[in-house]
Design brief:
The complex is a heterodimer of chains A (314) and B (451).
Chain A: E1 17-21, E2 24-29, E3 49-55, H1 64-70, H2 77-86, E4 91-95, H3 108-121, E5 126-129, H4 134-147, E6 154-158, H5 164-173, E7 176-180, H6 185-197, E8 205-208, H7 218-233, E9 243-245, H8 247-251, H9 270-286, E10 290-295, H10 298-311
Parallel strand pairs in A: 3-4, 3-10, 4-5, 5-6, 6-7, 7-8, 9-10
Antiparallel strand pairs in A: 1-2
Helix pairs in contact in A: 2-3, 3-4, 4-5, 9-10
Chain B: H1 5-11, H2 25-33, H3 47-57, E1 64-66, E2 73-75, E3 93-99, H4 104-116, E4 118-121, E5 124-127, E6 130-134, H5 140-153, E7 158-161, H6 165-174, E8 181-185, H7 190-200, E9 204-207, H8 211-224, E10 230-233, H9 239-255, E11 266-267, H10 276-288, E12 293-296, H11 301-314, E13 327-331, E14 340-344, H12 347-360, E15 364-369, H13 376-381, H14 387-397, E16 407-410, H15 418-424, E17 429-432, H16 440-450
Parallel strand pairs in B: 3-6, 3-12, 6-7, 7-8, 8-9, 9-10, 11-12, 14-15, 16-17
Antiparallel strand pairs in B: 1-2, 4-5, 13-15
Helix pairs in contact in B: 1-2, 4-5, 5-6, 6-7, 7-8, 10-11, 12-16, 14-15
The chains are: A alpha/beta (314), B alpha/beta (451).
Bound molecules: iron/sulfur cluster.
């Protein structure tokens, strides 16, 4: 007697969000009616995608193997973005780090210059994050938003204490807003509602559930994402936005991905350990529902892309 | 999974004949659901009902122990599909493969490296669980000799991998008293392997080359023979098919109480992948999604450390978050002039603070107070992180001998404690840090140079 495979009858569906457009290449994420990669119980029209994180200035304090892997391109955002796309980036994720007051405190003009350079350098969709200082975020993200009107950028982050300006600008220029809550399902949902109250369409929102790296809160992010995804598939339309995880940023700032001196022998070689730290953070969060993983190391990009391909059954 | 009174009632004769001493079948069913009476009190219950009730009283995923003594590990007994619903209880066993065709020297080195491997994380020693010895030679004597050699060199549990009952019998003789996992029973050798499992009282793995249907068939053969301790291998080796198989097995066990698949699953991520790194990625998937035993073809510290960390993360009880031991922690090499932060012992709080302090590039001291694992705001609200607690920790930790200055940075969320803490710690300068760890870097650069 054949075993009867138990499937869940989900009533909900993850929203489809499209980045890019306006004559540029597009990438669509979301649309699932099944838990991650469970093809036997629903449809997964869009595979998860890989965004590669670059900075608008030379990275300071990045792990040595990571900087070495990129080489000279880290001195030039446009060259860096190009190389990222050559290595398989579906999206380029640019952090406007130079705008941080502790960094170069750059402003609107510099952000616009960076954005234009990137638009010229690559044709994939772009995501911009600010330096995560509210005032500066508002300044540089709005500048980028205006300079890229109609081209379907994603801009973040919107947090409960600072979302209005960014959401309003996304709305005006047809961009996607990324909302981030501190690893908490109800706050994430609440933020989605607040953002929608400003008039932005739910399918122009991505959720950043706050990423905990392997060994540094991964399990919290994992479970909150599983809960968000279950709620969405169960029919909750305010948790059904696709999810983005800033994997590389979190994984590579941990000691395990940075230190080769003075660490236990049982940690093994730094480079392989660091890459696997990032890979496992990425793939574990994909199995909890990540639709966009933002990565840093070229080899992680390669491995995660091939893993996605295999999980999608091709 | 225990049945409700109503579910039991449906299985009873429904004649209300009162022979059980209850006025109705429903009343009897209710009592039975509370385990206040035995089913045998009803003389008319059918065999089918008996079997259904018996199955329902078993754990949905049977607990299986591999190995003997201190290092034995147990897997199974899981009750949820998602860790947030309760918790995952028994961490999957991680075994490293040894082939009986490996040279004696390289096998011996691997055995000693893996047996000695331990890495400390969040106050726990993380280790690998044992070895899977593979009869790659196809030869009985070679296999037995290899098992004998490994068994003398390690106390860790063993799995014996051969589908030849003769080779298995010879190997089992060399692993007497070690309670190894026999891997395993196929369609062709099931009866013989079941016999060996019974004779040696060892757990038996069932191997399917024909998906879940094939698996059930063989499980039924070995259970009919009397084997109870079973581990199952659905045969899926890739990313997508193994995910589907493991999810389906866990769902069938938990939601359908499907007995033939109510056992821990063994996986072989090395067989579906092309490099040690990719093997680790697939092993990670198996750890998160429902494997009971994961057999690794490659061992290197830089791949097992991340995997052991992942296993610890996923199997942490969400209701009882990991706590840090209270006391003094350092970031970088702090001197007697370095900043001193204090916060609670909720591990995520600690790790966020630690990460940001590290990112600030300023070597520092972090004093962790015992808040019973609560985060700053919750601990403060619950009275577990107050000025008295902080002052006591300062005094008892010995931090006063390590620093010359008398400045302590408290989390911004508990700024209200400042006044009280000044009273509790005379001579100290209480500084209010940022609310969120992420702002530590900017904060410390401002205040510490000016101070
Ligand atoms: S003896 Fe059995 S059939 Fe009779 S009342 Fe009790 S439960 Fe029902």
């Amino acid at each position: 007697m054949p075993v009867e495979i138990p499937t869940e009858k989900w009533t909900g569906k993850i929203r489809e969000v499209t980045l890019g457009g306006g004559g540029r290449k597009t990438v669509t994420v979301g649309g699932e009616t099944a838990l991650p990669f469970l093809h036997f119980e629903g449809s997964i029209p869009n595979r998860p995608v890989v965004a590669v994180q670059i900075l608008d200035c030379r990275p300071d304090g990045w792990s040595e193997p990571l900087v070495r892997a990129w080489g000279d391109v880290v001195n030039d955002p446009a060259a860096w973005a190009k190389k990222a796309v050559e290595l398989g980036a579906d999206i380029v994720f640019c952090t406007l780090a130079s705008a941080h007051p502790e960094n170069q405190n750059t402003g609107a003009a510099e952000a616009q210059t960076t954005a234009k350079k990137l638009l010229d350098a690559v044709d994939v969709p772009l995501i911009f994050y600010g330096p995560e200082v509210s005032d500066k975020d508002n300044e540089v993200l709005v500048a980028v938003s205006d300079a890229t009107s109609g081209l379907g950028m994603a801009l973040g982050v919107c947090e409960e204490k600072n979302y209005r300006t960014i959401v309003a600008s996304c709305l005006a220029n047809g961009h996607v807003a990324v909302g981030r809550a501190p690893i908490e399902i109800n706050m994430q949902k609440q933020l989605n509602i607040l953002m929608c109250d400003l008039g932005i369409k739910p399918d122009r929102i991505l959720m950043d559930p706050t990423t905990g790296a392997l060994g540094y809160g991964l399990e919290y992010t994992y479970s909150v994402m599983e809960r968000l995804r279950l709620a969405a598939l169960g029919g909750d339309s305010m948790t059904s936005m696709p999810m983005l995880c800033t994997v590389g940023h979190e994984a590579w700032r941990q000691k395990e991905a940075k230190s080769s001196d003075g660490v236990p022998e049982a940690w093994g070689s730094l480079e392989e350990r660091g890459i696997l730290w990032e890979e496992l953070t990425a793939t574990t969060l994909m199995s909890a529902g990540a639709d966009i993983v933002v990565l840093r190391h070229p080899r992680t990009v390669e491995m995660v892309k091939s893993t996605i391909k295999k999980l999608m059954g091709s | 999974m225990a049945l409700t009174g109503l579910e039991i009632y449906k299985l009873l004769p429904k004649t209300n004949c009162k022979k059980c001493g209850f006025p109705t079948c429903l009343a009897f069913a209710m009592k039975l659901s509370q385990k206040g009476i035995e089913l045998s009190a009803c003389p008319d219950v059918s065999d089918a009902a008996k079997a259904a009730l018996e199955a329902a009283s078993q754990p949905p995923v049977r607990l299986i122990t591999v190995g003997a003594g201190d290092k034995a590990f147990s897997v199974g007994n899981e009750v949820v599909l998602f860790r947030h619903e309760k918790t995952f209880y028994n961490e999957p066993g991680l075994l490293v493969t040894i082939k009986d065709t490996d040279s004696a020297d390289s096998a011996a080195k691997l055995v000693s490296d893996v047996s000695a491997y331990a890495v400390e994380r969040v106050g726990k020693d993380l280790t690998l669980n044992g070895f899977a010895i593979k009869n790659a030679s196809g030869d009985k004597a070679t296999f037995a000799a290899c098992v004998a050699a490994v068994a003398t060199k390690t106390v860790l549990p063993l799995a014996l991998l051969s589908t030849d009952p003769g080779a298995m019998e010879a190997a089992l003789a060399k692993a007497d008293g070690r309670n190894p996992l026999i891997y395993g029973a196929t369609k062709d050798n099931a009866a013989k392997m079941a016999e060996l499992a019974l004779k040696h009282k060892c757990p038996l793995a069932v191997i399917s080359t024909d998906g879940l249907d094939g698996l059930v068939e063989i499980v039924e053969i070995v259970t009919k023979a009397g084997v109870q301790d079973i581990v199952i291998d659905p045969g899926a080796r890739g990313f997508a098919d193994s995910l589907a198989a493991l999810v389906q097995i866990r769902r069938l066990a938990l939601k359908k109480n499907f007995r033939p698949l109510g056992y821990p699953v063994i996986t072989f991520p090395g067989e579906g992948t092309n490099s040690p790194q990719e093997e680790a990625v697939l092993a990670g998937q198996h750890i998160a999604k429902y494997a009971g035993i994961v057999v690794l073809d490659h061992f290197s510290p830089e791949t097992v450390y991340p995997l052991l960390t992942l296993r610890q993360n996923i199997y942490t009880d969400p209701q009882k978050p990991l706590q840090m031991a209270p006391g003094i922690y350092t970031v970088g090499d702090p001197t007697d002039n370095s900043p001193l932060y204090t916060t609670t012992n909720f591990s995520l709080t600690y790790f966020s603070v630690m990460g940001e302090v590290e990112a600030s590039g300023v070597p520092s001291w972090i004093l962790i107070c015992d808040s019973e694992g609560l985060s700053v705001l919750t601990a403060w609200a619950a009275g577990k992180f107050d000025s008295e607690k902080i002052a006591k920790t300062v005094k008892s930790s010995g931090i006063e001998d390590k620093i010359k200055h008398r400045k302590i940075i408290i989390p911004g969320y508990v700024a209200v404690l400042m006044g009280e803490l000044e009273d509790e710690l005379p001579g100290w300068n209480i500084m209010v840090g940022p609310k969120d760890a992420v702002d530590i870097s900017g904060y410390i650069k401002k205040v510490w140079t000016n101070n």
